[in-house]
Write a structure and sequence with these properties.
182 residues; mainly alpha; Rna Polymerase Sigma Factor, Chain: A; 2 domains; 75% helix; elongated
Length: 182
């Protein structure tokens, strides 16, 4: 298990290559899932994940341990993902036919013969509004606490709880519709 203390020790000893080698296996998939929850594009999430670890490697000498390593890395990942989203907004508008097609394609009706399993749940989570999706991904799929999610997404804990409640209600309603169809 990689501890923040061990990582700080490596950073202070100017052994950041060793520190990043310890971080990558622990955080690579978590950072990817967080980026994907923002971007909903596998290739873009992979690019952001790579960018995040380059930024982490560069910034490691400045890591002081005031926040946990995971919170620090998730904050970098969130900010990098938001930068990509801002860039996208500048490049597209709803009057663009491709954007309209993409928006319509994001809400496909699932077929009635699909059994509720992990893939179905994942698709339903993908259809949640962005903030609800991010909170669900961090809380349920990455096992973060309410407080950690609030810190990572820079929102009050009460907002995190509200978003989780609304997401559960939406998912429950969607699953109820699915079973009524089947």
């Amino acid at each position: 298990m990689v501890t923040d203390a061990r990582l700080l020790e490596l950073v202070r000893a100017k052994r950041r290559d060793e520190a990043i080698a310890l971080l990558l296996p622990v955080f690579r998939h978590k950072v990817f899932r967080l980026a994907y929850s923002f971007l909903r594009d596998r290739e873009a999430a992979e690019d952001v994940t790579q960018e995040v670890f380059v930024k982490v490697w560069r910034a490691l000498p400045g890591f002081d341990g005031r926040a946990s390593m995971s919170t620090w890395i998730y904050t970098i990942a969130r900010n990098a993902s938001l930068s990509v989203l801002r860039g996208r907004r500048l490049q597209s508008s709803l009057s663009d036919p491709e954007v309209m097609e993409a928006a319509e394609a994001q809400n496909p009706v699932p077929s009635a013969d699909v059994i509720v399993d992990g893939a179905v749940i994942r698709r339903l989570v993908d259809q949640l509004p962005r903030k609800q999706r991010q909170v669900v991904m961090l809380f349920y799929m990455q096992g973060q606490s309410h407080e950690e999610v609030a810190t990572m997404l820079e929102m009050p804990v009460g907002t995190v709880k509200t978003l989780l409640h609304r997401a559960r209600a939406r998912l429950s309603a969607a699953l109820g519709k699915r079973s009524a169809i089947a």
